[in-house]
Specification:
The protein is built from five helices and nine strands, in the order ααββαααβββββββ. By secondary structure, the protein is an alpha+beta fold. It folds into two domains: about 210 residues; about 80 residues, Immunoglobulin-like (Sandwich), CATH 2.60.40.1120. Strands 5-4-7-8 form a four-stranded antiparallel sheet, with no helix packed on it. A three-stranded mixed sheet has the order 6-3-9, with no helix packed on it. Strands 1-2 form a two-stranded antiparallel ribbon. A hairpin with a 5-residue loop joins β4 and β5. The relative contact order is 0.10. Keywords: Membrane, Transmembrane, Transmembrane helix. It comes from Pseudoduganella albidiflava. This is SLATT domain-containing protein.
Length: about 300
């Protein structure tokens, strides 16, 4: 974790003293000003990355936690639904258990959306980049403070210092400036690369969804199912129920036919149930729904 402002101050005091130089290590005024400006530039950059990485860390943790929980729910929900009974009796009423299978699809899409959201805004990636850049600048600054003391000792080893000695100090200062700028530039370039990659991935995902939607629209002709019950009047109250797969049960009273429209082509399990003289009766059938057609099923007798 990046140090707090207090720990940064302690590091400065340990490596460079309190800021007042002993005799024999005093820098010329111009060099001292450059040193202080470069030190300030580095500490300001570190403070920027320290504050930004905390916000990115919170965002990354919240979004990734949500994605993990939603992904777990996506895997658990189908198993929980499979363990539920198809029908239950409450106060003498035969009731179908409503199965929320689409919930797993919803949670799965939400988990994927959370991951895309994280990638687009770069919470996780930026968090890592900021920590690495902070530590790199911190290491360079520590080396810079120690190196500065060494440079001053060399510079004051003979008085007055030679031009070569002064130029060597300028080269030392310029090298530190380049190291800080290189660290910031590398982080910025990494951000740009990550951003372009995330945008490309999102565009690819959207294009895939559009293509899938177009295919469904082009070849998604629906079918329908018509159920004819031969003896509804023999049931108590002429009341019967109709359920296809795990969908919500439909209740019919006083009618012998029922139609379920807008079904995707495929094989379904149909359950017709009722109560005859106080006793539950039911029948189940596999039915095949074809696109653009109405499939008719005749139920002669329940039970």
């Amino acid at each position: 974790m990046p140090p707090t402002s207090g720990s940064q101050s302690s590091s400065h005091e340990n490596l460079a003293g309190t800021g007042s130089y002993d005799a024999g290590t005093t820098a010329p005024a111009g060099l001292q000003e450059i040193y202080e400006a470069l030190e300030r530039k580095a500490t300001e950059a570190m403070a920027w990355y320290a504050s930004r990485q905390r916000a990115k860390k919170r965002g990354a943790r919240y979004i990734r936690t949500a994605a993990i929980l939603l992904g777990a729910l996506t895997a658990i929900i189908p198993s929980v639904i499979a363990m539920m009974p198809e029908r239950i009796f409450i106060m003498g009423e035969d009731m179908a258990v409503v199965r929320f299978n689409p919930v797993a699809t919803i949670t799965g899409v939400a988990a994927a959306t959370a991951v895309l959201f994280d990638r687009f805004y770069g919470f996780s990636a930026s968090w890592g980049r900021y920590i690495v850049t902070y530590q790199r600048i911190q290491q360079d600054l520590d080396d810079f403070r120690i190196g500065w003391r060494k440079q001053m000792l060399k510079l004051n080893s003979n008085m007055p210092p030679t031009d070569e000695q002064i130029l060597a100090v300028y080269d030392f200062l310029a090298a530190f400036l380049r190291s800080v700028n290189d660290a910031v530039r590398a982080e910025t370039e990494a951000w740009l690369t990550d951003f372009k990659s995330s945008v490309a991935d999102i565009d690819k995902t959207v294009d895939g969804q559009r293509a899938a939607a177009a295919n469904i629209a082009a070849g998604g002709a629906k079918g329908a199912l018509s159920v004819v019950l031969a003896d509804p009047e023999e049931l108590d109250g002429a009341r019967w129920t109709l359920q296809i797969d795990n969908r919500k049960e439909e209740v019919k009273t006083g009618q012998s036919t029922a139609t379920i429209p807008m079904l995707d082509p495929g094989i379904y399990k149909l359950r017709v149930a009722g109560i005859r003289r106080g006793r539950p009766v039911a029948a189940e059938y596999p039915v095949c729904v074809t696109p653009g057609d109405v499939t008719t099923l005749k139920v002669d007798r329940l039970g």
